[in-house]
Specification:
This protein is an all-alpha fold. It folds into 2 domains: 187 residues, MFS general substrate transporter like domains (Growth Hormone, Chain: A); 182 residues, Growth Hormone, Chain: A. The chain has 15 helices and no strands. Helix 2 packs parallel to helix 5. It is globular and about 50 Å long.
């Protein structure tokens, strides 16, 4: 009895620490992600050069998420890789605060994207290791809810910092936030953090292709998630443009609607994560994909503020249903000694989408316009939802990981 109580207390402490890391690291991202292109534009960089730098960082992050996740399954402990990512971001942004040369800036920014990508997916894998299966959805919901709070809190100040203080202060604030996240992660400790069962080295060496170990159901989730993030990219980039100029709401109101969505996500993420513990991950993730399609269909009908508010309110539920449940599902569709690789690949789906979306969505809008494009994207999401439903027919077995068997 005392052992069970002690374990629950340790799990609660670990969840609090990892969620605090999520909040702080996403606050840093809320500054750097929209702030970097704004800063470079103010510095007089051409759009082509800015896009090249952002694309190189996205590719570096994509490769890093998969590579670091795989290595975390094989060497050291997962907290060590979270620390590497936080430290890499801290050093990288500290250097960027003093760099003015374009080539040096692009090189350091890309390297920071690669090293810094170690932390977030491995933190999710670590959280999955700590969380018993019966409450993993809620734990992931809390993790992503904290991320939403961090993002929504910092992104509101990004434009002001760039316009009034400049890029040096922007990157200095990012560095300080990443230093704070590193100190938070260090409080986990190595011995307490590593509760996973060691994988059998003979089992690991008998399979030459690590990706094959993830299995078909995981890749069904991965492909549907890439499609989901293409629409998420459209929500962040093209929907505000649509509201601003096509609907006539203006840029200020369009960005306020994005903030409105983020605050809906905070309670919705915990709610749907807990719901997935009761009714199953697959049902909740499928609901998020269907709601995403509904979001696009609603946008096709937006003609004023009322329907715009409804659409962005729907998206708050979309992200709430998707984030916690899909993260938990991704960790449960694979064996425990492949969890780091799985979470790295799962997180890389956003980078894949960020590379695909500007070409695919942007060109579609140019050809057929916003409204028909939104109808096309919603219809495509329905197709991917169907593929996901048949690709992941049954929930994963409870015996995949040692932590799944704990109560």
């Amino acid at each position: 009895m005392s052992s069970t109580a002690g374990r629950k207390s340790q799990d609660a402490r670990s969840l609090a620490i990892i969620s605090a890391y999520s909040l702080i690291s996403q606050a840093a991202l809320g500054l750097s992600y929209p702030g970097t292109p704004l800063y470079l534009f103010h510095e007089g960089w051409s759009e082509g050069l800015i896009n090249a730098v952002l694309a190189s960082s996205a590719v570096a992050g994509l490769l890093g998420q998969v590579a670091w996740g795989y290595l975390s399954d094989r060497t050291l402990t997962k907290p060590a890789f979270v620390e590497i990512g936080c430290a890499g971001n801290f050093v990288g942004y500290l250097l960027l605060a003093g760099i003015k040369d374009p080539i040096a800036f692009a090189s350091v920014y890309t390297a920071t994207g690669f090293v810094g990508s170690a932390s977030f997916p491995v933190a999710m894998a670590l959280l999955a290791d700590f969380s018993p299966k019966g409450s993993r959805g809620r734990s992931m919901g809390v993790f992503w809810s904290a991320a939403s709070v961090g993002w929504a809190s910092s992104v509101a100040f990004t434009g002001w910092i760039v316009e009034n203080l400049g890029g040096s202060y922007l990157f200095l604030f990012c560095a300080l936030l990443d230093l704070a996240s590193l100190l938070v992660v260090l409080s986990l400790g190595r011995k307490k953090a590593r509760r996973v069962v060691e994988s059998d080295p003979r089992r690991a060496s008998t399979r030459a292709f690590p990706l094959r170990r993830l299995g078909g159901p995981f890749f069904a989730l991965f492909l549907a998630t890439v499609a989901f993030f293409v629409l998420d990219y459209a929500k962040n980039v093209y929907v505000p443009l649509y509201y601003s100029y096509e609907v006539g709401l203006g840029a200020t109101l369009a960005t306020l609607l994005l903030s409105f969505t983020s605050w809906i996500e905070v309670p919705a993420t915990v709610l749907f994560g807990s719901l997935s513990d009761r009714i199953g991950r697959v049902k909740v993730v499928l609901a998020s994909y269907l709601l995403c399609a509904l979001f696009m269909f609603t946008n096709a009908a937006v003609g004023g503020l009322e329907l715009a508010v409804l659409a962005m309110g729907i998206y708050g539920l979309v992200w709430g249903a998707f984030s916690g449940a899909s993260s938990a599902l991704a960790s449960e569709l694979v064996a425990e000694d492949s969890r780091g690789l799985a979470m790295g690949l799962y997180n890389s789906s956003y980078s894949f989408a960020a590379i695909i979306a500007p070409v695919l969505v942007g060109s579609t809008i140019q050809i057929i316009g916003y409204r028909l494009s939104f109808l096309a994207m919603g219809s495509a999401m329905l197709l991917f939802s169907t593929a996901f439903r048949f690709g992941v027919r049954r929930p994963p077995k409870a015996g995949y990981a040692a932590s799944d068997q704990e109560t």
